[in-house]
Amino acid sequence: MARRPSSTLRLAALCGCLLSVSQLMASPSLTIYNGDFAVVRDNIELNLKKGNNQVRYQDITYQMEADSVVLRPSVSNWKIKIDEQNYLSRPINEALLLQHFEGKTIDFEIKRNKETQIVSGKIIRSGHGGNYNNTPIIEMEGKTRFGLPGRPLFPALKSDALLKPTLDWQLSSNKAGKLDLELAYLTAGLSWKADYNVIAKEGSNLVDLNGWVTFQNQSGKDFNNAKVKLMAGDIQKLQPAPRAERRLMKAAMADEMGQSVSEKSFDEYHLYSIAKQVDLRNGESKQIGFIDAHGVKAKTLFIYDGAQVNQYFRGNMEHIRTDPNYGTQSNKDVWIMREFENSEKNQLGMPLPKGRIRFYQQDEDGQLEFLGENNIDHTPKNSLVSLYTGNAFDIKGDRKRSDFKVNNRENWVKESFEITVKNEKKTNATVRVVEHLYRWANWTVESKSHNFTKKDSQTIEFNIDLKSEQEKTIKYTVHYSW
Prior knowledge:
Structural class: mainly beta
Helix content: under 10%
Distance between the termini: 64 Å
Strand content: over 45%
Number of helices: 3
Number of strands: 31
């Protein structure tokens, strides 16, 4: 339906007789997606005649997808059809006007001897033809020159000149009169993201959590008093092939939960509606609060996962089972994990769109200090949020293998480890020690110094309580067979 018109068509349209389009008082409506695109919906009014109509509409973005246009009448008994659509995506500029007036004579404003003069010149070549023809050629005063001799002065443009991107339609209508329609299309240049701040008080397991929605408008169009919805989810969107006229424009870049933003399921995704109407100006970044929760129960966990296994190693299972050096490398870092449940009983319970969470803690003087950050994926309600925010300074671990035996005739391996964790904090701490039984899925722990929990087919965990300045050592032996 959409096609790229020639420059001749673009300029010829300047003097065409067109039906006017009225923008109705209804506010524009936007649904903005995670992937830097949006659905724009405008309400327009057309004064149609029965049969064929030529209509031009200019209040569109600079990055619209012309082939996504949907035009729907507000009443079911009025039939319209777009027979042809031209997307005039490059507004009038000097280069296009030079191209339009190729072979014709226009005036140029030039400076001679510090005086401004008006001199006529014929445009032999506009310089708008491509890589090898990008220098204008002008014939003036009996001589031919490369480049413009001065500022070109073009004939006056008609009032309907294409000063911004335009949709040019050939419409068929089964009746005459005024008709209200909804225009919808996809556009790039509109995006949103979620950001969260978690604020804790020293010595308390209750935190405050607030969330922001940040909008970015780089679409080339202002949206005033817009109704805005946000779609969260991983939606398949094919990227259009790059085209010169679709290059991005360069531009400078606390209510309670459920009141400022409401949420509902939509198909396999989640749709968030902003309660108040929003002004989104081109080139603007805007934040709106959408979560403000108090008294959220949160935990700080210390996790020691001491084995350093090369995640890019692609050895076969026989090598992993019998290589005496596999999995013996160790690190001393104990992870700090922040954890809370996204549930109504924990003062939350809204599906959380993906975004960055920053953690702060208030010290005894009431000042906030930054403690780390991480990203969450789209998180359903009643899910556990668990995020790594850094490594503990005063808690360290050490992991070493104390014994290794392999019997290739009877197909078994026996391996022993000692894991030491030490707490140099002034307060008590619990460390979760994670061990991966990576050599084979068929295993038995033959001996152990502490009880463990089996988390999955190849992972066990030990929870070790440590007093201030205390260390403990876990010992275990695992037997693999195949």
